[in-house]
C-alpha cells in the first residue's frame, strides 16, 4: 500500500503535542513527606515509528503518585533502518513495517521483530540483574513500540509486572505462539486503542485480545471513541493507576 513519508512525521509530531498537552493540563499533586515503602521498579517505554526516546520522556512527569518514587524509567531510541512502507527511507524503526495503515491482516516481518525483541530483553535482563524484581518490570509502547511491547513481554521467559500496548497490533503469526512460556502467559496485558485511528486501524487492535485468548493469554482492552493515532490524557491516567495497582511494596 502506497504511503508517503509525511504522515510519519505528522504521527511523531501528534504524539509529542499530546504529551505536551497532558503535561501542562494535568494538576500537580502535593509533595509527600512520608518515607518510601515501595520496592524498586522499572518502566521501559518504546516509542513509535520515526519518533525518539527523549521526545517521550515528559510522560514520566505525569506519574506523580508516591508509588513511583523508586521507579527507574528508560526511554531508548530505535536504530535508524530502512522502512518498507516508506519506500526504504531510513528512519528510527524497531523493526520493518510493510504497509500503512496497519490492518489485522497486514504482513508481519518476524525476522526483524525478533531481533528487536532480543534488544528489549537485554534491557530487561540488565535491570533485573541490577536488583529489580521481574514482577516490578513494566514495558509500555505506542504504535510500533506497542507491537514490540506485546512481543517482548510474551516472549520473555519470566512473568513481568505487565505490558501496556497503546495503538499497537499483533506483530507475529500464530507460529510464534508456541514459544510463549507458561510464565510469560501470566504477565498482565493492557491494550488501549483509539477508535478513530487511521494509521493502525482500530480493527488491528481489536483483533489482538481474541488472538491472545486463543493462546491462553488474558488481556484488558479499552477503546477510546474519537481518538486517532495518538495518546490522550485519559489513557495515561489509566496507565498510572493500572501500574500502581500492580507494584510490589517492601512492607
From TrEMBL:
<dbReference type="GO" id="GO:0008474">
    <property type="term" value="F:palmitoyl-(protein) hydrolase activity"/>
</dbReference>
<feature type="domain" description="Phospholipase/carboxylesterase/thioesterase">
    <location>
        <begin position="31"/>
        <end position="245"/>
    </location>
</feature>
<protein>
    <recommendedName>
        <fullName>Phospholipase/carboxylesterase/thioesterase domain-containing protein</fullName>
    </recommendedName>
</protein>
<dbReference type="GO" id="GO:0052689">
    <property type="term" value="F:carboxylic ester hydrolase activity"/>
</dbReference>
<comment type="similarity">
    <text>Belongs to the AB hydrolase superfamily. AB hydrolase 2 family.</text>
</comment>
<dbReference type="InterPro" id="IPR003140">
    <property type="entry name" value="PLipase/COase/thioEstase"/>
</dbReference>
<keyword id="KW-0276">Fatty acid metabolism</keyword>
<dbReference type="InterPro" id="IPR050565">
    <property type="entry name" value="LYPA1-2/EST-like"/>
</dbReference>
<dbReference type="GO" id="GO:0005737">
    <property type="term" value="C:cytoplasm"/>
</dbReference>
<keyword id="KW-0443">Lipid metabolism</keyword>
<dbReference type="InterPro" id="IPR029058">
    <property type="entry name" value="AB_hydrolase_fold"/>
</dbReference>
<keyword id="KW-0378">Hydrolase</keyword>
<dbReference type="Pfam" id="PF02230">
    <property type="entry name" value="Abhydrolase_2"/>
</dbReference>
<dbReference type="GO" id="GO:0006631">
    <property type="term" value="P:fatty acid metabolic process"/>
</dbReference>
Amino acid at each position: 500500500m502506497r504511503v508517503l513519508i509525511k504522515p510519519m512525521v505528522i504521527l511523531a509530531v501528534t504524539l509529542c503535542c499530546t504529551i505536551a498537552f497532558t503535561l501542562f493540563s494535568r494538576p500537580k499533586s502535593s509533595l509527600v513527606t512520608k518515607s518510601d515503602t515501595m520496592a524498586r521498579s522499572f518502566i521501559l517505554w518504546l516509542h513509535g515509528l520515526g519518533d525518539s526516546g527523549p521526545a517521550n520522556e515528559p510522560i514520566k512527569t505525569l506519574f506523580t503518585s508516591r508509588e513511583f518514587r523508586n521507579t527507574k524509567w528508560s526511554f531508548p531510541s530505535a536504530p535508524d533502518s530502512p522502512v518498507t512502507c516508506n519506500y526504504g527511507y531510513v528512519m528510527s524503526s524497531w523493526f520493518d513495517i510493510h504497509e500503512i495503515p496497519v490492518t489485522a491482516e497486514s504482513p508481519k516481518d518476524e525476522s526483524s521483530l525478533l531481533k528487536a525483541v532480543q534488544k528489549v530483553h537485554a534491557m530487561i535482563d540488565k535491570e533485573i540483574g541490577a536488583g529489580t524484581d521481574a514482577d516490578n518490570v513494566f514495558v509500555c509502547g505506542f504504535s510500533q513500540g506497542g507491537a514490540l511491547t506485546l512481543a517482548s513481554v510474551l516472549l520473555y521467559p519470566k512473568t513481568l509486572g505487565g505490558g501496556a500496548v497503546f495503538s499497537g497490533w499483533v506483530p507475529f503469526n500464530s507460529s510464534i505462539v508456541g514459544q510463549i512460556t507458561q510464565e510469560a502467559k501470566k504477565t498482565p496485558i493492557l491494550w488501549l486503542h483509539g477508535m478513530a485511528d487511521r494509521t493502525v486501524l482500530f480493527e488491528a487492535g481489536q483483533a489482538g485480545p481474541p488472538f491472545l485468548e486463543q493462546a491462553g493469554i488474558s488481556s484488558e482492552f479499552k477503546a477510546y471513541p474519537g481518538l486517532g493515532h495518538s495518546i490522550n490524557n485519559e489513557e495515561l491516567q489509566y496507565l498510572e493507576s493500572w501500574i500502581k495497582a500492580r507494584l510490589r511494596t517492601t512492607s
